Structures are given as C-alpha cells and as structure tokens.
Amino acid sequence: MDLSLSGNVNFLAPGGSSNVNTPLAAAATYGAQALATIDVPSGTASGTSYAIGFGSISRPVGFIVKNSMPSGGDISVAMQATGGAHSIAPGGFVAMAQPNRPSQPTPLTAAWVTVLTTTTYVGTIEVMVFGD
C-alpha cells in the first residue's frame, strides 16, 4: 500500500514583504497500519502517559498524532526512549514521514503521549502508524 503525506507551508518572509509557499511531500510503501483513538476520561491527572502501540510494525515509515482534546487539553508526544517531548495544543498534530530505504540507522521503536493538565472533560487523541 502507498502512503503519501503532503501539504504546503505558507508564511510571510522576514519583513513581511512576500508570502512563501513551500510544498512538503514524502511517499513510502507500507504493509501494515496501526490506527487508534486514545480516550482520555474526565479527571485524568496531569502527567498521565499513554503508550502508542505499533502492533506488528517494526519499521515505521509514517507516524501521525493529532490532539483532538477540547480547549486547554495540551498534550506532549515523545519518541524513542531518550527523545525529547513535543507539546501539541488542541487541534494540532505531529507527523513524521520518510521514504522507504533498505535500512534505517535509527528506526522509530517507541512513542507515547502525555496529558499536560488535569482534565475536567472527556477528550481523544488520534494515532496513526504505517510501516512494515
């Protein structure tokens, strides 16, 4: 199966004199996918972490985490055992895509999300992992 992540980054150049439209694209093939919705119940304590399951995937070529929490429901995403965490506001996402290659020097092997504030609402986090 084919995976294609693409889009445009639009921003004003320094000084605001011109709009820069930079296309981004990465394509890869994959044989498996792990799709999940993490339900975050009301009353979840700040610092609660949820592991992202890769299922049978040992070589991810695509990884997306979308924060579908209500306003104020910031989360962080961390990758690899020693990787730094990246905060994501509600409605935001983190995506990683890389073209196929015979071997990856450092393949993604672990990821998790952490709730950054105690919740007073029910929310969700969407996760998509593609690979072989």
Describe the structure.
By secondary structure, this protein is mostly beta strands. It has one domain (32-131): Jelly Rolls. The protein has strands spanning 2-12, 19-29, 32-40, 49-51, 60-67, 75-79, 85-88, 93-97, 111-115, 123-131. A four-stranded antiparallel beta sheet has the order 3-10-5-8, with no helix packed on it. A four-stranded antiparallel beta sheet has the order 4-9-6-7, with no helix packed on it. The mean pLDDT is 87.
Distance N to C terminus: 10 Å
Please state the overall shape, judged from the principal axes of the Cα atoms.
Answer: globular
In CATH, the architecture is Sandwich
Biggest beta-sheet profile? 4 strands, antiparallel
Mean pLDDT: 87
Helix-strand makeup class: mainly beta
The CATH superfamily title: Jelly Rolls
Uncertain spans:
none
